[in-house]
Amino acid sequence: MEWGTLAVAALGALFGVGTTLITDVFRSRREKNHQWNETKRAIYVRFLISLAQAHSRMTVAAFREEPGPIRQRAVHAAFLSDPQHSDAKSLLRELAIAAPEHIYQAAVPVYEQLRLARDIIASGPAEAASVEYQRAIRLFFNDLESLERLMRNDVQPPASR
Question: With contact defined as beta carbons under 8 Å apart, do 51 and 110 qualify?
């Protein structure tokens, strides 16, 4: 066997191993990115669901025609007690860890708007139709839509953005 043939065979083997390693590195990176996106997607969905459910529970509690202090406690309890044990405040903390900073910064005002709406409808039976509540809840839903858009863009593959 000639040295040239042996060198070409060794070079071919080295090239084959090298391309396999590079392919595995790229595949591994792609899988990690996919898993991370799925993790963020799950947190995003849980946060959005917790906000929507908290709002629903609060409005149900507010319209029960309870006297002032009982109504206020019921609305606050509805805001805090999530039957799935994933209240919005806890999930906001998860967002602080998992989400990019711009998404977390967009999520905080949404949560704060919902708290403001909670305080307004907890204050009295006629307050749900008030201009103050309507303004707060409109801001909440507008900010919520913007947050959903940011979250959706964050988990989209780069090619489809």
Answer: yes
User: Closest Cα partner for 123 from 66, 71, 54, 58?
Assistant: 71
Q: How far is residue 116 from each of residues 45, 74, 108, 134, measured CA to CA in Å?
A: 22, 16, 12, 11
Q: Are the beta carbons of 144 and 48 closer than 8 angstroms?
A: yes
Token output for 14 = 């080295």
Residue 34 pLDDT: 83
Kindly report, residue by residue over 77-109, the tens digit of the pLDDT: 888 887 776 788 889 999 999 999 999 999 999
Alpha-helix residue ranges (DSSP H) falling in 63-100: 68-80, 88-98
Rounded Cα distance, 12 and 91, in Å: 53
d(CA 34, CA 31): 5
- In angstroms, the CA 104 to CA 122 distance is 27
* Residues 5-14 pLDDT 10s: 777 777 777 7
Nearest alpha-carbon partner for 128 in 73, 52, 89, 75: 75
